[in-house]
């Protein structure tokens, strides 16, 4: 193959495009092909041909030399050409490098210019926004000042005119009185505040004249601020009457008692048993139509209860099956929150039994509703009439609410639903009040929690309370715990410093039971000691999370010292700061602080999270923890230890004998010996094993011999639990029931915290309530399951383990049951109904199933995350996102994008309110995560929505301003934060008043901000004001709440010792009504005051003076609610009783006269008010003498009353003469009502334009405890 030169013709010139900028022309020689003959001859082999010439061979060599020379020249030319090309490329590369450097320099210059312009733009925008903000603030302040000045000017002008007119009238009246010889006392001549009275002109509205003898004592407003001694409604306006339990209680006594009162756990029947509204339905075949229709309506009740954090359950046993569930029915009636009886024409024995238990034996235990379906002629059959008479005879307190109906079944069911809804809202869940005020009250109640950084789950707290109460209700007298209690007392009393005390023992040895009983005894013996306890549940449950435990203990500790502000939400900081809080607050506590943590070894990574136990404790702090002896960490084994030994043979025999006696059984001597020989090893003589063994022997349904034989084959608690499961399976009647039992227990095992009864009915549609109730009853009898906070849970860890081994094959089958629960909670999620149960269970189940995609989707449901965050499950929410693999920034972006998508679907006002709450929750969550830059946007958006959808002065706007200011504090932008805090403070003061707890929180935040700016003087002023407000509100809420619990406990003890009807019980009812009245809980106060009145009428008689006291208190309550007709009737009845029973000058009689006169005057019944004013004057004359200043005040008030009768008294002089001449006749109150007087009382003058200067008026004084923000 030739070279490239063979492709061109001889003599052709080509250009070289690679060398230099221009090509160089060069002539390439043409290749000359050698002759084929010569080539062939040169390579020919064989003998030399004769006659060949030597010259021909030489010529060939010459030709090759020429060829070589030619190729060499060609190569040299090619090399030169390529060198030229390389030189040219190097020059071009150098030129491009220079161009690149120049362009890079220009680009850097442009970037600097861009950054400079961008900064200038941001500065200009910031200046613009600040200018606009200042302008808006200026305009707002200017308009506000204009309005205030206008109102101030008009008010002062009117006051000046009124004062000038009153001055002229007073001068004229003074001259007339002096001419008649009547002496006028000056304000300095009196030793009583009652004489500080102001005179108004004749004919003006005289509501100011509630001063003096009729209104000069402390008002109800001042009572609600607790400025006076604590008295009930009867003593709220008078210092003369010293009745009641709180007359001599000083403020120091209240402060000293707060710690013990707030931890009172009175064992009184609660309205809700285990967080469930249980509606027990008693029905006959005649009312089955109403019952079926009501069950359809009850879904609305269930949704309402679940939205408030409670469960709802219809409890109903059909007539045909009621006889077989007698014991279960009795238990359900005791647990029920409300009982409903539906009657028409017939009754059965089961209905009579249920009515006897619910309506006759315990009519005061729970609300009762009686639905009576009558015919058109209103005739009742004999059995119905007899039953109604029994119910009516037992209902001494009028607790039964009767629904009498004669129309269709649909309307009857609707009436039952309406009545139940009212009972649930007002009496059971405590959301009483009118519908118009419901939103306001909800905002008022939730304000403190929303503003603070501490969010807490009440379900966790209720679970702990129920765990403690269930342990306290167990019998321990047969377990020999007294020796351990004495040793606990000795170890706690040891001189400090003392390390934590370790209570150890095997599983089921009774550690939780011992600690509960010890706490109960210590609370009675040491009321000044503060007890903080926590019972840890099974592993992986919420109660075993270390952050939840430490946070709960910290909050409980801080609640006893007025405030819980300053507590961090960061999980690591919560664990780190607890020892500091404990040391700081223990120095302020007068007594000891004892912390008890049961089953501490069940806490996740207990040794790492509870390392504060190793540090030295404060002098007055003691810590008691219980552990399993097998799982106790090595570092804790050096602490002082109280080990629970196995039960002795005598204690074993006592436990078994007690169970047999309760079941009316008796063991033979041989059976006793078998039990004694069996219960000798460590595994067969612990408390749980012996208790379970005794229950299985007596309640198995088998013969005693067979039960004993089966149980004695089990050598440990776990095998005994497995036998109990098999025993209950055999006890069930059908395979369907056995299948449901297995499935339900597996679901409880696979869930996070348990399954509720209503959820079990949803998961098993074929399961009827009687079967479920009976199953739970039998499982509870053998200590397998219990109900705690409305959830079905395992009572002991060994029961949980037995279910895992018996039904789940060691736990391998949990995935299918978790899928079933996930499907159930996803259905609720698809209906946009997120309850605390969905938020607790669904993310945890998805995490256990290792489904990260669905877990992230569930977390991005904004209401799920909001529910978790607002209930304080901050660390749990973070753990889910960490498991998904998202960092903080990406998580914030995901939430914000999800909110943007949700915002597009929000159109209604309610939707916008929810959207604002979601934005605020996201902002607070990001702020707690330490992402203030990303928290600003959602908080600002929440503020914008609330200002637009609600009102710029709405309290929710103040909440947004408060949260936004907190972000600026983190940014150290103190100027912006101060302005936002001040705006929030102004809104809160306008909405709630200057002495509300919300105002105190704003003041604390502002004081903390000033302290960071080293403005200590301003911070101290605000902090002192905040402390005063908190002390005042704490006395209203905390102290009164503690005394209410104490009085309810006293009431229970009195009922047990004296019987339900006694004068002491009636007095306690009255005092409870007083306390609830002082807390502004008027509905609860009415219930107790009514019960007090009815009991006193039954025990003491209707004319006893104590009945007059109850009537007075009820009248004061009805006056507060503006139910004047009822109040007037009660005051009149009280006055009649006291006139007959008391002396004419008795102070209690003066009290009733005074307030009835005020009520008459308020309603415009002046002709009835005059004799009572006169009677009050007469009592004062007899009590203090005719020349006492208070008598003069009463005279002036009586004159003012005549001033209001301006239509007949035209001439003031005639009025004075008339009043003077009639004075002697007016002092005879008995003759006054019979006289005919031509006096026409004017209409009620209505509210006065301002507060009374000399006294107080109940109608026009604002009640700070019930003030709500303007709608």
UniProtKB/TrEMBL annotation:
TPR repeats lie at residues 958-991, 1108-1141. Keywords: Cell projection, Cilium, Coiled coil, Repeat, TPR repeat, Wnt signaling pathway. Residues 650-807 form the Nephrocystin 3 helical domain. Residues 1-20, 1238-1271 are annotated as: Disordered. Gene3D superfamilies: P-loop containing nucleotide triphosphate hydrolases (3.40.50.300), Tetratricopeptide repeat domain (1.25.40.10). SMART domains: TPR (SM00028). Residues 818-1056 form the Nephrocystin-3 TPR-repeats region domain. Residues 497-623 form the Nephrocystin 3-like N-terminal domain. This is Nephrocystin-3. The gene is NPHP3.
């Amino acid at each position: 193959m030739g070279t490239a030169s063979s492709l061109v013709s001889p003599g052709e010139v080509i250009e070289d495009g690679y060398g230099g900028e221009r090509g160089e022309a060069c002539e390439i020689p043409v290749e000359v092909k050698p002759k084929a003959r010569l080539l062939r001859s040169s390579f020919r082999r064989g003998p030399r041909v004769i006659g060949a010439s030597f010259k021909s061979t030489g010529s060939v060599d010459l030709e090759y030399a020429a060829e070589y020379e030619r190729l060499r020249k060609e190569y040299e030319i090619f090399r030169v050409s390529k060198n030229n090309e390389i030189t040219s490329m190097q020059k071009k590369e150098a030129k491009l490098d220079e161009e690149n450097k120049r362009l890079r320099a220009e680009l850097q210059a442009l970037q600097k210019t861009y950054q400079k312009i961008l900064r200038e733009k941001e500065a200009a925008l910031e200046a613009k926004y600040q200018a606009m903000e200042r302008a808006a603030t200026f305009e707002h302040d200017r308009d506000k000042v204009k309005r205030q000045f206008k109102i101030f000017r008009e008010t002062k002008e009117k006051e000046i005119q009124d004062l000038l007119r009153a001055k002229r009238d007073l001068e004229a009246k003074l001259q007339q009185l002096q001419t008649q010889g009547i002496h006028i006392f000056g304000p300095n001549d009196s030793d009583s505040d009652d004489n500080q009275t102001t005179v108004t002109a004749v004919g003006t509205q005289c509501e100011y004249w509630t001063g003096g003898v009729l209104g000069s004592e402390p008002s109800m407003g001042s009572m609600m601020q607790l400025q006076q001694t604590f008295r009930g409604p009867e003593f709220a306006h008078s210092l003369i009457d010293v009745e009641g339990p709180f007359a001599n209680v000083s403020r120091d006594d209240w402060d000293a008692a707060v710690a013990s009162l707030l931890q009172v756990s009175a064992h009184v029947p609660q309205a809700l048993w285990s967080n469930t509204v249980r509606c027990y339905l008693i029905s006959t075949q005649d009312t089955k139509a109403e019952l079926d229709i009501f069950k359809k309506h009850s879904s609305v009740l269930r949704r309402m209860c679940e939205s408030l954090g409670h469960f709802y359950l219809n409890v109903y046993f059909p007539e045909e099956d009621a006889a077989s569930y007698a014991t279960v029915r009795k238990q359900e009636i005791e647990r029920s929150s409300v009982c409903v009886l539906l009657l028409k024409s017939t009754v059965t024995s089961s209905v009579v039994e249920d009515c006897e238990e619910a309506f006759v034996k315990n009519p005061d235990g729970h609300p009762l509703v009686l639905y009576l379906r009558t015919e058109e002629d209103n005739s009742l059959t004999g059995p119905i009439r007899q039953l109604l008479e029994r119910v009516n005879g037992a209902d001494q307190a009028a607790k039964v609410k009767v629904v009498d109906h004669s129309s269709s079944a649909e309307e009857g069911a609707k009436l039952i639903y309406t009545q139940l809804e009212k009972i649930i809202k007002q009496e059971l869940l405590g959301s009483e009040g009118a519908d118009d005020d419901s939103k306001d009250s909800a905002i008022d109640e939730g304000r403190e929690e929303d503003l603070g950084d501490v969010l807490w789950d009440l379900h966790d707290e209720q679970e702990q309370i129920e765990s403690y109460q269930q342990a306290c209700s167990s019998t321990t007298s047969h377990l020999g715990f007294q020796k351990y209690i004495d040793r606990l007392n000795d170890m706690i009393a040891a001189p400090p410093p003392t390390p934590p005390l370790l209570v150890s023992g095997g599983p089921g040895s009774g550690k939780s039971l011992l600690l509960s009983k010890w706490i109960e005894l210590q609370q009675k013996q040491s009321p000044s000691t503060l007890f903080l306890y926590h019972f840890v549940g099974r592993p992986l449950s919420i109660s075993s999370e270390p952050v939840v435990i430490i946070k709960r203990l910290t909050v409980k500790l801080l609640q006893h010292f007025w405030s819980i502000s300053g507590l961090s939400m960061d999980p690591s900081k919560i664990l780190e700061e607890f020892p500091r809080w404990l040391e700081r607050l223990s120095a302020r506590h007068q007594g000891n602080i004892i912390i008890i943590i049961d089953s501490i070894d069940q806490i996740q990574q207990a040794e790492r999270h509870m390392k504060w136990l190793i540090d030295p404790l404060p002098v007055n702090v003691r810590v008691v923890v219980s552990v399993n002896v097998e799982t106790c960490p090595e570092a804790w084994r050096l602490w002082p230890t109280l080990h629970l030994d196995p039960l002795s043979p005598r204690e074993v025999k006592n436990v078994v004998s007690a169970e047999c006696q309760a079941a009316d059984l008796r063991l033979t001597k041989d059976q006793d010996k078998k039990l004694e020989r069996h219960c000798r090893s460590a595994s067969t003589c612990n408390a749980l094993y012996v208790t379970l063994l005794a229950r299985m022997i007596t309640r198995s349904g088998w013969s005693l011999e067979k039960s004993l034989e089966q149980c004695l084959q089990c050598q440990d608690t776990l095998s005994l639990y497995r036998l109990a499961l098999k025993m209950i399976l055999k006890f069930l009647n059908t395979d369907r029931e056995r299948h449901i039992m297995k499935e339900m227990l597996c679901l409880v095992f696979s869930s996070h915290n348990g399954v509720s009864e209503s959820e079990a009915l949803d998961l098993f549609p074929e399961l009827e309530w009687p079967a479920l109730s009976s199953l739970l009853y039998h499982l509870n009898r053998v200590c397998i399951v219990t109900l705690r906070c409305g959830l079905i849970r395992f009572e002991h860890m060994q029961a949980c383990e037995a279910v895992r081994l018996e039904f789940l094959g060691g736990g391998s089958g949990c995935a299918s049951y978790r899928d079933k629960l996930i499907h159930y909670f996803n259905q609720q999620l698809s209906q946009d109904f997120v309850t605390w149960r969905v938020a607790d269970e669904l993310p945890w189940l998805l995490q256990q199933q290792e489904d990260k995609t669905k877990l992230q989707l569930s977390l991005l449901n904004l209401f799920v995350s909001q529910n978790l965050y607002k209930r304080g499950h901050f660390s749990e929410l973070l753990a889910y996102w960490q498991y998904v693999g998202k960092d903080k920034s990406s998580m914030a972006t995901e939430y914000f994008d999800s909110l943007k998508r949700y915002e597009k679907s929000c159109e209604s006002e309610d939707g916008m309110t929810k959207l604002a709450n979601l934005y605020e929750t996201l902002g607070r969550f990001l702020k707690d995560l330490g992402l203030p830059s990303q928290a600003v946007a959602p908080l600002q958006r929440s503020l914008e929505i609330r200002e637009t959808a609600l009102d710029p002065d709405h309290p929710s706007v103040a909440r947004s301003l408060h949260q936004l200011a907190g972000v600026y504090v983190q940014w150290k932008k103190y100027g912006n934060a101060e302005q936002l805090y001040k705006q929030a403070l102004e809104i809160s003061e306008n909405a709630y008043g200057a002495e509300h707890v919300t105002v105190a929180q704003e003041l604390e935040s502002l004081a903390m901000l000033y302290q960071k700016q080293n403005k200590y003087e301003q911070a101290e002023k605000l902090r002192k004001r905040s402390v005063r407000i908190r002390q005042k509100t704490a006395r209203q809420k905390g102290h009164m709440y503690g005394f209410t619990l104490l009085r309810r406990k006293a009431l229970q003890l009195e009922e047990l010792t004296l019987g339900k009807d006694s004068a002491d019980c009636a007095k306690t009812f009255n005092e409870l009504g007083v306390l609830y009245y002082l807390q502004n809980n008027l509905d609860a106060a009415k219930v107790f005051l009514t019960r007090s009145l009815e009991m006193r009428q039954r025990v003491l008689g209707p004319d006893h003076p104590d009945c007059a006291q109850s009537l007075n208190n009820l009248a004061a309550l009805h006056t507060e609610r503006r139910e004047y007709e009822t109040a007037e009737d009660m005051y009149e009845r009280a006055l009649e009783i006291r006139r007959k029973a008391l002396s004419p000058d008795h102070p209690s009689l003066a009290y009733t006269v005074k307030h009835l006169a005020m009520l008459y005057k308020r309603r415009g019944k002046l002709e009835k008010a005059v004799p009572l004013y006169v009677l009050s004057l007469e009592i004062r004359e007899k009590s203090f003498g005719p020349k006492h200043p208070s008598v003069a005040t009463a005279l002036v008030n009586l004159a003012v009353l005549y001033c209001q009768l301006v239509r007949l008294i035209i001439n003031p002089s005639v009025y004075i003469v008339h009043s003077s001449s009639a004075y002697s006749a007016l002092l005879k109150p008995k003759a006054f009502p019979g006289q005919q007087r031509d006096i026409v009382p004017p209409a009620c003058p209505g509210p006065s334009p301002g507060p009374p200067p000399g006294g107080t008026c109940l109608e026009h004084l604002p009640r700070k405890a019930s003030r709500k923000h303007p709608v």
